[in-house]
Amino acid sequence: MPDPTPGPGEVRIRIAASGINPGDIKKRQNAFGYGMPYPRVIPHSDGAGVIDQVGDGVSTDLAQRRVWCYGAQTYRPFGTAAEYTVVPASQAVPLPDGISFEQGACLGIPGITADRCVHAAGRVNGRTVLVQGGAGAVGICAVQLARRAGARVIATVRSAADEPTAFEAGAHHVLRMEPELIERVRAIAPDGVDHIVEVAFGVNIAADLELLALRGSVATYATDVGTPAIPFWPLLFKNIRIDFLGSDDFAAEDKVNAAHAVNEALLAGWRGFEIADRFPLEEIAIAHERAEAPQRRGRIVLTVAPG
């Protein structure tokens, strides 16, 4: 295809690395039943590289800046699985010195989703936040961002092997998903947790109800079943707030604020994600298969122009 050209208010990024998210796979599989929104789609919303062209109205000072980007394939046909991508200038975020392009390519969807999930119901400073799935991509970011916001953070993980990941992200307590989970959380927070970041709404909402304090809140970004049963009256009697959060449609201001929070965490020393596998762009199909059936913990990225 011809190289893209940035329009007014846009920048072109020479992609060095492209991140694969579960949403990219779900879009390809048509998991949500929406079909293909465009005749041809270059996949992946997240990536990192160097700005090499700017459109009208964009400062030329941005040229040659190292950046990570998000939303490249959100309501747009041309994502980051390519040598170049074009995005609005506001979606090209400065990549801090010392942070690799591969790391930058992993930040967009997980970091922005996590920040919104942590703060959807208000400030968490001094509150107890439970992050379900604290070793997953969004979970790692949520643990880090909640900790930095002043919360006491409890993370749940699937296995003992995942515990170090959640601790490294900043969790004060890490608990395995076991039958005794409710009792173990209550031992830490006898009055209940104030806020839950939820990765598996359907299977966990009953336990979340038991764990939440009066007037607590849940921010959920994923579910194990598409039509979960909801215990309406018990949730109502506890005055529980539930936010259903899809990152594609966050307010632009929330996305900008989230990107800033992610960069602040990196600048403060957060190490980000473990990279499990790297594949060249021409092996994108193999990379997606690996993402569908991971062989080890960590993110999978495409290396487009590593230099």
Question: In summary, what is this structure?
Answer:
By secondary structure, the protein is of the alpha/beta class.
Q: Which properties best describe this structure?
A:
six-stranded parallel sheet, 307 residues, 2 domains, 10 helices, Quinone Oxidoreductase, Chain A, domain 1, alpha/beta
Description:
The protein folds into 2 domains: 10-106 and 273-303, Quinone Oxidoreductase, Chain A, domain 1 (Alpha-Beta Complex); 111-248, Medium-chain alcohol dehydrogenases, catalytic domain (Quinone Oxidoreductase, Chain A, domain 1, Alpha-Beta Complex), CATH 3.90.180. 30% of the residues lie in helices and 24% in strands. The longest helix has 16 residues, at 252-267. It has helices at residues 22-29, 101-104, 108-119, 137-148, 163-169, 181-188, 201-211, 232-237, 252-267, 284-292; strands at 10-19, 47-54, 66-69, 84-88, 92-94, 128-131, 152-157, 173-176, 193-198, 212-220, 241-244, 275-280, 299-303. The radius of gyration is 19 Å and the shape is globular. Strand 12, helix 10 (284-292) and strand 13 (299-303) form a beta-alpha-beta unit. Strands 1, 2, 3, 4, 5, 12 and 13 form a 7-stranded mixed sheet that branches. Strands 8-7-6-9-10-11 form a 6-stranded parallel sheet, with helices on both faces.
Largest sheet: 7 strands, mixed
Under CATH, the topology of the largest domain can be stated as Quinone Oxidoreductase, Chain A, domain 1
Number of helices: 10
First-to-last CA distance? 22 Å
| Radius of gyration computed on alpha carbons | 19 Å
CATH homologous superfamily title of the largest domain: Medium-chain alcohol dehydrogenases, catalytic domain
CATH architecture of the largest domain: Alpha-Beta Complex
Count the E strands. Answer: 13
Order of secondary-structure elements:
EHEEEEHHEHEHEHEHEHEHEHE
Mean pLDDT: 96
Strand content: 15-25%
Helical content band? 25-40%
